[in-house]
Amino acid sequence: MTGDGPSPELRLLIVDDEVAILFAMGDYLSRRGYTVDKARSLAEAERLLAVARYDLVIADLRLGTAEPRGGLDVLRQVQVRQPWARTILLTAYRSAEVETELAGLGAGRLLSKPQPLARIAEEVGELLESRPDSGRAVQSPDGSGTP
User: Fold this and answer.
1) pLDDT score of 25 more than 80
2) pTM beyond 0.85, yes or no
């Protein structure tokens, strides 16, 4: 990344069942130069992960009452489908159990809610800058080279 903002091919997926948070975070990160897709559920996130390549995924732990740990399920899907992607899990329900489960998924950051959007953007930037493959060519989820 340069001082001019992120490379335009950097793509983020945000998963949160709260529409106001989803759109505020998406708009904030889009204004900082990222391409942002949004999903309100695990099923929507799975559909997007199947067709687009993401550099980073942000998921809320609780995706409504039907998916109280849906964010961890999203991150499991990321690990299987797009293991190169960096991850951030947001939660107002932080616990040692969640931290252990997140660590078991290989990586990722756990941020307590609420967080200022500027802090989330800072975490996104740090995670993307630290990628070992930051110079990689854009590929599709199936690795075909067609985004």
Assistant:
1) yes
2) no
For domain 11-129, the question of CATH label 3.30.450.40 is answered with no
Q: Supply angle C-alpha 61, 66, 68, rounded to 5.
A: 25
Long-range contacts of 129-132 (CB under 8 A, 24+ apart): 129/1, 131/55, 131/84, 131/86
pLDDT of residue 141: 41
Contact of 40 with 34, CB cutoff 8 Å: no
DSSP state of 134: T
Evaluate the CA torsion angle 37, 30, 11, 24 in order and state its sign.
Answer: negative
In which residue are the tokens 């929507």 written?
44
Which residue did the predictor score with more confidence, 132 or 26?
26
Domain boundaries, the chain: 11-129
